[in-house]
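Title: [Solved] VOC family protein 3D structure

Original question kept below for reference.
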Amino acid sequence: MLKAVHHIAIICSDYEVSKKFYTETLGLAIIREVYREQRDSYKLDLSLNGHYIIELFSFPNPPKRPSQPESCGLRHLAFVVENVEAEKERMEGLGVSVEIIRTDEFTGKKFTFIQDPDGLPIEFYESN
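Solution (posted by the thread starter after getting help):
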């Protein structure tokens, strides 16, 4: 029986750029960072509010992930925020392009999207 999501693994094309984005822009905390010489790859374990959530990997020359138009596979990563407008303003203040705020037709909750440095869609979904 499933209990919870343990983590999400993301492969990036530029490790330092993505590390900065996930830690400084999104504010995730570093649990550990390991360089795996046999794979010529970094693995960065990140947490949100003390909960292990993302493994960020760097591999030499990974193929691009098609995000637009949407394709089969992982569609996006969504984070709960208290206030979508405030998060949009914070992201824009950091130079991140943010989509218009929309309202979920089924729940009435506000949401918006940004993209990580490799174009992976990231959603901010309002909790209130």
